Amino acid sequence: MSQYKGERSRQFPSKLSTTQFVKLYILHLLNERSFYGNEIIDEIKVRLSHVWVPSPGMIYPLLRDLESNDYISGWWEEPDKRSIRYYRITDEGIEHYKVIKRTYKASLEDSLKLIQYIMQDIYQR
C-alpha cells in the first residue's frame, strides 16, 4: 500500500493522471506517423475499443503544450486556411517519449493488477 507523509494513502493507487496518460498516447501515435488533432482523438478511440475517448478540450491544449516544449512540431495542411494542423514527433519528443514510456509502465502495471484483483474478488472474474 502506498504511503503519503507516513500515513496510508486514501487515493486510489493509480499514480498516472489522465493528462499524463494522454500525453504518452499522443507521443506514442506520433512516433508511428504524423496525425492531426481529430485523427488522434479517433485513433485513440479505435485503439481503446471505443471504451474511452479523449475530448478535443483535452487533446488540443496538450498538443500546444507538447509543441511549446519542442516535443512535437506542427504545420498547416493549407497555411492560408489554417484548418488542419498536422503534427510530427521531434527528436527531443522521441527521447521524452522513451523516458515517460519507461517511467509510466510500472504505474500502469500496478493499476492493471489492482483492477484484476478487484474484478476477481468482487465479481469472481
TrEMBL record:
Pfam families (UniProt xref): PadR (PF03551)
Annotated ranges, domain Transcription regulator PadR N-terminal: 26-96
Name the record gives this protein: Transcriptional regulator, PadR-like family
